Amino acid sequence: MENASRALIIAGGMLIAMLIVGLLVFGYTQIRTSQQAQADEEEVQQLADFNQRFEAYNRTTVRGYQLVSLGNLVYDTNIRYGDYQGYEDVVVEVAGLTNIYDSSSSPNEQVNLVDFVQGTYDGLNSNQKNAVKQAYFQCDDVEYGASGRVTHMIFSKVNVVN
Fold first, then answer.
1. Residues 39-45: contacts with CB within 8 Å, 24+ apart?
2. The pLDDT of residue 1
3. Which of 5, 80, 133, 136 has its CA 20 to 30 A from that of 35?
4. For residue 99, what is the DSSP state?
């Protein structure tokens, strides 16, 4: 009888130990799932914040000075994120930009906006810079990469009647 009583106590202790281990595993799984969901939510928010900075220019009327700001934003963003694995550089192309200050260029010539802002724009005289700043453009297309980030934007010059 004494052995049976001791066996029941040992079995009860084992059962309680298994319940405690099961609860610990369940709790760990819940915490891990919660942390993963939080990390996923944070990643989605970062993606939305990243895209929002560029999508602000996805309009039918964008002034030239805003394009200059966009060019600087793209340049800074590509420098900041360029070292991250899987990051695709943002490319912005503008048609008709050079035709504003150089009438001999084609009105449909595509110009890389970063190259223009970081190079050509600084060499323009004040009248040419003002002409670029006052011009109107429209966003024709926005493309997203495999990561869901904006990777390519296309603008074209438009004529606005006042």
1. none
2. 67
3. 80
4. G
